[in-house]
Amino acid sequence: MPNTPLRVIPIGGLGEIGRNMMIIEYGDDLIVVDVGLMFPEEEMLGVDLVIPDFTYLRENAAKLRAVFLTHGHEDHVGALPYFLREFKCPVYSSRLTDGLIRVKLNEHRLLNESELHVVPPGELVQAGVFEVEFFPVAHSIPDACGLIIRTPLGPIVHTGDFKLDHTPVMDQHTDLIRLAQVGAEGCLLLLADSTYAEQEGYTPSEQLVGEALRNIMVNANGRMIVATFASLISRVQQVVDAAAFCGRKVFVTGRSMIDNVAMARQLGYLNAPDGVIVGVEEMRNTPSSKLVVITTGSQGEPTSALTRMANGDHRHITIQEGDTVVLSASPIPGNEQAVYRNVDNLFRLGAEVLYNRVANIHVRGHASREELKILQGVLQPEYFVPVHGEYRHLVVHARLAESVGVPKGNAFVLTDGDVLEIDEEEARRAGRVSASYVYVDGLGIGDVDQQILRDRAHLSTDGVVVVIVSVDRQTGRLDRPCEILTRGFADVEDDFSGILDRGKDVVANSLAGADHYAEFGDINARIRDALAKFLYDETRRRPMVLTVTVEV
Amino acid sequence: MPNTPLRVIPIGGLGEIGRNMMIIEYGDDLIVVDVGLMFPEEEMLGVDLVIPDFTYLRENAAKLRAVFLTHGHEDHVGALPYFLREFKCPVYSSRLTDGLIRVKLNEHRLLNESELHVVPPGELVQAGVFEVEFFPVAHSIPDACGLIIRTPLGPIVHTGDFKLDHTPVMDQHTDLIRLAQVGAEGCLLLLADSTYAEQEGYTPSEQLVGEALRNIMVNANGRMIVATFASLISRVQQVVDAAAFCGRKVFVTGRSMIDNVAMARQLGYLNAPDGVIVGVEEMRNTPSSKLVVITTGSQGEPTSALTRMANGDHRHITIQEGDTVVLSASPIPGNEQAVYRNVDNLFRLGAEVLYNRVANIHVRGHASREELKILQGVLQPEYFVPVHGEYRHLVVHARLAESVGVPKGNAFVLTDGDVLEIDEEEARRAGRVSASYVYVDGLGIGDVDQQILRDRAHLSTDGVVVVIVSVDRQTGRLDRPCEILTRGFADVEDDFSGILDRGKDVVANSLAGADHYAEFGDINARIRDALAKFLYDETRRRPMVLTVTVEV
What we know:
In chain A, 31% of the residues lie in helices and 23% in strands. By secondary structure, chain A is α/β, with parallel strands linked by helices.
């Protein structure tokens, strides 16, 4: 098809962190890279998850050929069940990613009807006009991959989440040789991870963390408790290795950690010498100095095992003096308060606590600026689109690319919904498609809108006041004093200040002169305005005032 | 009084950040150091401020001799108006601190009845049995001081907030010579700032920031906009100095920045050559390359000048390509999201944005670990209590003190309400006094309690559902179908799913068999339980369900 443009359309993950999803389209074919979810931001009150907007896919469902998943983290695969409920197409991923999504799809009772394929690096997958190859990258989960997507206009490289780690723990390097081959061939477009584009220098190797953990373990006299991400299998491996080295037993706790450790051992991603990982009984019979506990809760999640330990209500583990707790993770922005509350509580219980601010016990999974420059140097792409990150990360990443060789004007800072068109001559912005936040709240998908979030914010600030007015059917006058009910507004149980009693007078006065012919809507508005003003004058608070008029 | 113990009682600021207040008591005399406020944490929904608990002071009001304020930041002086509404006693502070609290007390109409004293460093103030001397410290506001408090048992040193800066901007060093004299004499007790006790090394000097700002300004071709804390007068001075050096004019915006700059110039804390600081008219007539704007909003405050610029609705300043915006501040924990949203929006408008992650344009106002060690070395106190900080800061600071000479067991990690007693022989914990959070919400002080915050949290998550049931006076049966009103629950406007209609049936069924003799409370509970269960089964949400029964 001469002059058919290639279209690149980010639906999620550009200008925000999480719910990554990218559409690549050429003529009648369309593929999707990642279908992630985002955890709600502060102001998304009561929302459980945020998923990508599938509107454009719905409108172009006939073109959909396949989904490719770069790795098994929630922000890249978490919305797959919502996607597969609506769309039928093959899903391609690496072995561990496949194992993780099978668990997830099984929970959603979608496993049997899904078409899942494991693709080893180097193998080619044909999806319409596209030919797609996975290549290994180093990241904070095993089997993470980037994609080489061959299109009629040339190859696209999508890094997924990555860093360059020359001494990784699971022996998975980012495959620079394969990338250099694509670079030699001529890379049309690079899409690269921007999460740490602000960070100068290099991201340290996972190896450093292993050494630090071993040093701490050798020097600790008592029990050691290590909290990290359940998906960070390489970190778990490092703890197990250190434990085996020190002759300690390992007890695993926290539901997702137990599940992931079991799955990783079964698939061969975690190697533990016989007898090192033990159950509850053996744990109880092991002296503290010979024990390591691996647990969830590094982000301060309220129901996690570590939070329960910190609150003194874990079933099996009671924190005591002599324990060393290691938080082998950095707080994800937004989680700081919960994480540090746990640290404080663990200190209160007498534990020694090592966390990111006082020890080098975690490294990031994303490339820093010098690594991003190497990537540019190896690929020398004609066009560049920074992906994964908030707007400022994309801007600084685009500038970095231009500073090391991407032709001026060929680095495009897109955000969710922007369409980039590339043809033989040039690349250009070409309008926008729908890319809203879609909120999942309980069983509801997309039924929580901005109005509902505004109402929740209003309710959260000053509570709710409900006024019930009985109006006489004949006269249109108040039949009896109104009732006023409040929650979250002020302590009015004994109404010491008489605010409710005076509020009832205000309501009565607001209706003076009303008659039966007044509309109920009008009566309600009058009461609401009068009472809201009275309450504000009295308290400088603005509760949500709801009025109900009952005709008797 | 032989064997009278000295009592040290933190009421706020130990185990938390903010609302600093410390009581020091001996026999019939009691003094207060700082009366600060705290900004509400995430879960304190709708709360405006948190102030210290004055219960113990109320019970011991007859002993109260004086208040001493270390410096003019809100977390040290912000609750003074609430304090002076209840208690009468002289207030002692340094010159700038006095200027700042006068503004505040005037707003609260408390200035005329307050007894305020300016105390220069070195002068002695007698307060009952205590003799108190201010000594200068380097911090992020001019005229910050620590206190030397002489007691019958020996001198106490309270650092306030401090760092050691050998090249400060306003020429105020921490007075190590005076401290060494107290150390030589024998320091009974040291109370020292723990805010950065986790931070290895030294806090860099303010001078570095001045150099960085000047470099940026020299190299910027367009307008430069600098946001910082309004109280950080030394930073404003640095910007003015750099502007004068580059031949730029300075325009000041943001209410608190305008007020503080005016006050600081008037009191001589800010020196600007004639004609450098300009008004709106002259600003408009100055070319961009000759202009610097100093503004509030470095913390992303929603109504601040910088946030308005970032949102494109500032009255005088429209961000454009060529502008360089410098955020000369670090986000205070909890403010990250708001700060980075501004950064993203400023980038979107085409500005170059320099912020803490990409440039060295801010230094902290608190001492790091090596500075804290120097303090210990100079004072060699017999007892040590770390102050100002969350629990973990206090723990690591206490360990630091013991590692450099405080006798084992003589460093006490106290938290709010703990009482430390010191006599001739020893120091010991001696019970607790009331030290709750006191919430200020609108005009209400202390009337928002845990129940109200729980209700607000509940409302914020899934909204509210109000059911109004009319019961026939004679039969006790439903008189007509109930009404259901929701806010923040789900989009039920058109009730596509019929959830409200079915909910009404659920309510009706829950009352089947009820008669007039059933208590209203019982009827309400039955309805509430049935409807809450139905809504949860349908939506997996748990709105607050309020039931009102009207008898007709």
